Here is the input.
Amino acid sequence: MEKLSIAMISDFFHPAVGGVENHIYSLSANLMKRGHKVIVITHGHPKGRVGIRWLLPSLKVYYIPFIPIASSATLPNFFTSLPYLRTILLREHIHLIHAHASLSSIGHEGILHSHLMGIRTVFTDHSLFGFDDAASILTNKLLVGNLRNVDAVICVSHTGRENTVLRAQLFDQDEKDPTKLTMRNNVYVIPNALIAERFQPCPPPPSDILTIVVISRLAYRKGIDLLVATAPRICARFPHVNFVVGGDGPKLIDLLQMREKHRLQDRIELLGAVKSNDVRSVLARGSIFMNTSLTESFGIAALEAACAGLYVVSTRVGGVPEILPEDMISFAEPDEDDVVRAVSEAVEFVSAGNHDPFVGHGRIKNFYHWDHVTTRTEKVYEAVMKSPQMDLMERITRTMGLGQFAGPIWTIILIVDCIFFMFLEWWIPRDELDYVQSSWDDTRFRNVVIGQTLGDGPVSPPTALTTIPPAARPLSLAPTAGLHGKPGAQSVHCLAMGARLGAAQ
Amino acid sequence: MVRASPSYADGTMDSSISADEEVSWKRVLWKTQPYPDNYVPPEVFLASLQRNAHFQPYTYWPLVVLACTITQHIAVIFVFLATFVNLNEHLLDPRTLVWICVASFWLTGKTGPHSWKHTNNYSDSNNNHLKALKSSIMMFLTLIALSPVLRTLTAATSSDSIWALSAVLFILNILLADYTATNARGEAHTRLTSVLSMNAAISASVVLASRLATDVSVFALILFAVLSFVLYPILKPRLQALSTSLWILITASLCSVCVYLLTPLSTTVTALCAFVLFSITFIAPILIVWAQQYKNNIRGPWDVAVPKVR
Here is the structure.
């Protein structure tokens, strides 16, 4: 397909960490690998992270100076980001925006404004929401209005798609039977993926102790109550089973109390928050992974554990039953007795030596790959670019169809948005914009960096140095050679500097 | 076997559909399926959606019986207000009210321990009686000591503010009160809101009492407030659990007392009160029964599961 300029818009991006953040980053990196131009637009962060920053594989990130109000999300106000978005989208020659996460208001604003500049819209929903509490009702209403005129919606699991279709009313009612719903044909399912190479299995440590690993945010939704109830029973039943729990959260105190009450300090290890780089090393300590989540859209943690060669026991909730074949994961109902049953079976199965970590890893490597995800996403982009763009009148008619009250309100928002846009066209005319003339050129970057390497030796990695024949080394490299020969020299110099500074004070 | 319908199979999306028609679509993510990503068989889509699961429609008369608890609460407030007006206008001798209150205390004390706690032997119940007697004597003495202070508490405040303040506090009391019926064992669990509600009512009676002329009437009114806003709400769920006919009888008598006390004071207020009590008891349940047709509760695999922990 022809190469596109894509803008990923979401409130959730680096330096915040999480599933959505990772997804956006990996998808952008892989799209760039396939020759598309990708930028990311997100809100600023305290201590001056505003403006343009570059992330490693030449990913340009715009941090708009908005302040997040709660959980890294900005206040939903429909117009404030239009001046920023208009300038960025125009100067970067964007063809398509891709908004992520249903609680990201900046993503929704992107969907709302893009049609003004003839830009197409795609939305990815990452999580599951209920229907029956006040917060859900409110956010679902917002979602219905925002996704009324979106060009395509991507969900990460089939359960997630059903949930999103119901929440955002992306269905048409059957004329014969009004209770029967037919989904619109622009709602796609593209799962998340993982980098299998980063979750290499390793053979279990040669000891009789069997370790069960739990890595999860310690919150109610992650079913920590089930863990608190079942862990002592499992410990009592199998004297050779230990637990390692990674993660932090409000339920940590419950775990600590449980550990104290049952005197299991030496058998249940609480690690606290685990950095995403350390996940693999924590997983490598165990042979069974336990996931007690009460709701899960995709269940990436269970997938990563299975990839690292652990036997996975999970609760049968949300999209988890879809991620792995039945023979690679064992399920329990979210019920204390059933979790104990499933974990006991798993312990017996693994203790008997029936589980081979390398087989599972080999299979998952073929199931999930970012290349697949990227090609599938590309197909969505292609379908969107080929579909006809809606004109304003059609948008207004569709928006009015939202309902007796919501329809006029959303139509007013749409029209005010158009007027605001016209004002901006007059205020900051397009020919005064500072357009991006040239984009990142990776080969040129490599050339320049290697050229720099020759110039200033100390910053270069040693591998680059060794490739250069000794005779070709310029004279300026001489101190570097000394550094490589005597690692202590530099630190002695630093110490001397420190001493001099101390004396000056 | 499921076949991709033409409306979903966008020709550009996946050309291998026709080649691989034998493979049926599965609701899994790990498998690469020969269907476009926007395809879902219509019969599989939302198959696990449940509408109004475990839904038991309400019927009219049980709702009326349940609504009686709200009726009683409002009737008690109106009775209290009528008593206050009578005291304020010197139509009621405060000593009569004190004796009525003492008699009620004695009655609740007599029936109380048996219905509140299941005591096994006689001496234990005797002990409880003694304790109850002691604490009620303490309370009487404290209230007597406090009543001169309470009488002049808001002397500097104009009466208009007092009426407004007490109205707000009583409305707060009505809104926050705990109207839940207890379970079969008669266990009530106190919530924060019910405590707040009780406090609002007591504060309202304190500010009203500060409008009265004599110490005895202040004492009588506060005593009556404790009886009707602290002790009666504790007793109410147990009465409800006891028997339905007794429950209805109590509601009816409370309403009649309320109307009887209000009639000589003001016809408008009496009419208003009667209308409120009638509509809460008989019309509000009709509305709930009617509104049930709009109930649309959907459940599916995306809902947060409820962990079963023993």
Notes: The helical segments of chain B are 60-88, 94-116, 122-151, 159-176, 192-209, 215-242, 244-262, 267-291. The longest helix of chain B spans residues 122-151. Chain B is about 60% helix and 0% strand.
